[in-house]
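Quick one, probably user error.
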């Protein structure tokens, strides 16, 4: 019964949304497209992918996605517009699509770092509803951590976008002033945690494991650590306390890492990424 209900709701939502145009089909744009199709939230044929060099989307075309180099046509054929270009490409894109933007028809979603809702409305019109979303590349496997915020969108549209991204991971609605921080912690954070896993696997090689085995061990251990926090809804330190014992090997390793700045380096990296994310669009204006 639950599966039938979910299927009915999904069909109704698709009929309400119509086509989705993803303008700028790079890594994050394609990850979103794949995630929405993988979750059965949308069909490939209802997603329009654009790129200046459309030959780079031949694989996606073969999978059934609509592909185009014409952003104006894509916008005209969709009701949800997702801006996924680089910050330095945004002004040109907004100027290009402005003539076909209809505030009554379109909801604009931006996944571009450092670009506020007001920045976009200043180009497209103050009555256009704009919602910022900051997913990460794990969206392609339905495991994204996405933060969303809006300055003028209706509750219905915020809920619609929240529901869209919930099909491909977890969603938190935040105040817009925290979006650059979300970029650093969640979007950039994928790279930070991957680098930590890489370092752990290299440590495994140092102590005798083959590289392939060391990586598998590091990945599964990291996944297990994350699941402990999610399932137990506990704090990292409470789980750490379960592993450490007096004069033990775990506390010795932790203290050595902290002596060399493990936690402080990660914190400083996140802070610097947030600072950089906040200035990306400003630098390119």
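Nope, works fine. Designed sequence:
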């Amino acid at each position: 019964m639950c599966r039938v209900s979910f299927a009915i709701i999904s069909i109704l939502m698709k009929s309400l949304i119509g086509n989705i145009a993803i303008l700028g089909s790079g890594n994050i744009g394609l990850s979103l497209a794949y995630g929405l199709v993988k979750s059965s939230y949308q069909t490939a044929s209802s997603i329009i992918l654009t790129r200046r060099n459309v030959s780079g989307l031949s694989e996606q075309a073969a999978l059934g996605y609509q592909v185009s180099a014409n952003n104006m046509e894509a916008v005209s054929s969709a009701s949800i517009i997702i801006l996924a270009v680089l910050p330095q490409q945004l002004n040109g894109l907004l100027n290009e699509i402005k003539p076909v933007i209809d505030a009554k028809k379109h909801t604009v979603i931006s996944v571009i770092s450092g670009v506020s809702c007001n920045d976009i409305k200043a180009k497209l019109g103050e009555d256009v509803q704009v919602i910022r979303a900051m997913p990460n590349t794990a969206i392609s496997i339905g495991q994204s951590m996405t933060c969303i915020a809006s300055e003028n969108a209706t509750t219905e549209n915020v809920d619609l976008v929240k529901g869209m991204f919930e099909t491909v991971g977890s969603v938190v609605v935040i105040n817009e002033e925290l979006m650059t921080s979300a970029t650093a912690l969640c979007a950039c954070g994928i790279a930070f945690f991957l680098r930590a896993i890489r370092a752990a696997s290299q440590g495994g090689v140092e102590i005798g494991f083959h590289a392939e085995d060391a990586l598998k061990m590091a990945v599964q251990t990291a996944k297990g650590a994350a699941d402990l926090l999610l399932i137990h809804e506990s704090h990292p330190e409470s789980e750490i306390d379960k592993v450490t014992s007096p004069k033990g090997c775990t506390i010795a390793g932790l203290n050595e890492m902290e002596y060399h700045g493990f936690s402080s380096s990660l914190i400083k990296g996140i802070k610097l990424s947030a600072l950089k994310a906040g200035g990306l669009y400003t630098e390119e204006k």
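Residues 184-284 form a domain with the ProC C-terminal domain-like fold fold (CATH 1.10.3730.10).
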